């Protein structure tokens, strides 16, 4: 065992030592053991990573299975490490290394770090951001989509096809069997209830796709109809409330795979997924809620009874009027929302007067990439 003490860039005293071939870092408050294989895999020297793309140049099988640290030396803000048995040497920025071992990986898709709004009053009002302000500074609106699950633009030019331009300000259109763009208005022989004047209860779109489109945009071109108001519900907040109120019911919805299905003359789509999708850490990551397209399999009697009781309990939260943000889309308004989290709804309307929205799908990865690019990361 060898050990050293040095001042890190954050002026925290750092002890560095090699114990049984692995590295141990101490910052005075806690000690972190760093596996040699992880450290070797994280090397960024020119032998390990392409200097232009930063992409790794070796496969896991290229590393010796018994890789170990034999020497670790601190020089200013740099940690120099020698590995055995291949004699590889590498340097690490001490501050970056400490950040990497202290900070758990971040996932912008799960419930952590988001502002949940179980009740509309938790939102503190509805903000419409004028198109010109959004174009000049898109980051605040895009952050709202990530953190609140939605954002509402106003004064977007009310012309056909404009919704594509909105999507392309932050990402890429996800084309589906509905086309690059879909018209939400009353149609004869509609293949989807969305294209009628019926009320549509809160739902996420396209749960029968795998993966689902993770963002939806709806742009209002005309809304002179009686009715046809819009609603949004925070599905993560509803699921989190169910977890508090009835953990067993939450667990049933998170572990029972149900089918979602859509059929039309030219499309037959089916996926199998739980209503509440969790990540490996048990955090809520995806809601698929759509009474029109869900097909519950013929479960054993007791499981079916438990599933429907849990589904009803979640529905009570989702359909609670206090949970639904209601607003009217006026021509030029464009709502952007996270289709893995926020459910959308609309009230019934009459054909007379005319209501015409255009929608498109896009994805959260593109939006998150744009936000990271704007932040200079
Ligand atoms: Fe929809």
Brief rundown of the structure:
The chain contains nine helices and 22 strands. It has 377 residues and is of the alpha+beta class.
The major beta sheet can be summarized as: 6 strands, mixed
Which geometry do the CA atoms define? Answer: elongated
What is the CATH topology assignment of the largest domain? Double-stranded beta-helix
Name the quaternary structure: single chain
The ligands found in this model are:
fe (ii) ion
How would you name the CATH homologous superfamily of the largest domain? Clavaminate synthase-like
What's the mean pLDDT score? 93
Helical segment tally? 9
Uncertain runs are: 7-11
Structure, explained:
This protein has helices at 36-41, 94-102, 131-136, 139-147, 162-168, 235-245, 247-255, 301-318, 364-374; strands at residues 2-7, 13-19, 22-26, 31-34, 68-75, 78-84, 89-93, 128-130, 150-154, 182-184, 200-203, 215-223, 230-234, 257-264, 267-274, 276-278, 284-287, 294-295, 324-327, 334-338, 342-346, 355-362. With 377 residues, the chain is an alpha+beta fold. It folds into two domains: 2-102, 2-Layer Sandwich (NE0471 N-terminal domain-like), CATH 3.30.2020.30; 111-374, 4-Layer Sandwich (Double-stranded beta-helix), CATH 3.60.130.10. The chain has a six-stranded mixed β-sheet with strand order 8-9-20-12-22-10. Helix 4 (139-147) crosses helix 9, helix 6 (235-245) crosses helix 7 (247-255) and helix 7 packs across helix 8 (301-318). The chain is elongated. Bound molecules: fe (ii) ion. Fe (ii) ion binds at residues 194, 203, 205, 344.
């Amino acid at each position: 065992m060898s050990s050293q003490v040095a001042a890190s860039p954050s002026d925290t005293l750092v002890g560095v030592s090699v114990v049984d071939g692995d590295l141990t870092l101490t910052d005075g408050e806690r000690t972190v053991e760093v596996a040699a294989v992880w450290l070797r895999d994280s090397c960024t020297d020119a032998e390990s990573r392409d200097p232009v793309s930063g992409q790794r140049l070796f496969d896991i099988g290229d590393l010796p299975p018994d890789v170990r640290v034999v020497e670790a030396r601190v020089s200013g803000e740099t940690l120099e490490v020698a590995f055995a048995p291949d004699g590889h040497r590498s340097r690490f920025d001490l501050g970056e290394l400490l950040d990497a071992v202290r900070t758990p990986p971040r996932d912008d898709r799960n419930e952590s770090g988001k502002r949940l709004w179980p009740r509309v009053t938790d939102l503190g009002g509805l903000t419409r951001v004028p198109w010109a302000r959004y174009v000049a500074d898109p980051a605040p609106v895009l952050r709202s989509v990530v953190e609140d699950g939605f954002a509402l633009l106003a004064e977007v030019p009310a012309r056909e096809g404009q919704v594509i331009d909105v999507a392309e300000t932050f990402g890429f259109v996800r084309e589906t069997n509905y086309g690059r763009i879909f018209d939400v208005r009353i149609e004869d022989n509609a293949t989807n209830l969305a294209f009628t004047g019926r009320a549509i209860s809160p739902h996420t779109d396209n749960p029968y796709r795998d993966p689902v489109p993770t963002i939806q945009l709806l742009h209002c071109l005309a809304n002179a109809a009686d009715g046809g108001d819009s609603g949004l519900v925070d599905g993560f907040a509803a699921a989190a409330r169910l977890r508090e109120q009835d953990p067993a019911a939450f667990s049933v919805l998170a572990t029972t795979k149900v089918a979602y299905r859509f059929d039309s003359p030219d499309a037959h789509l089916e996926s199998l997924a739980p209503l509440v999708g969790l990540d490996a850490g048990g955090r809520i990551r995806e809601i698929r809620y759509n009474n029109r397209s869900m097909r519950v399999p013929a479960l054993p009697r007791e499981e079916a009874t438990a599933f429907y009781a849990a589904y009803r309990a979640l529905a009570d939260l989702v359909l609670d009027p206090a949970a639904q943000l209601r607003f009217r889309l006026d021509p030029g308004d464009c709502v952007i929302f996270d289709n893995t989290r926020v459910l959308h709804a609309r009230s019934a309307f009459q054909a007379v007067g005319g209501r015409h929205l255009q929608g498109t799908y896009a994805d959260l990865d593109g939006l998150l990439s744009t936000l990271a690019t704007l932040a200079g990361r």
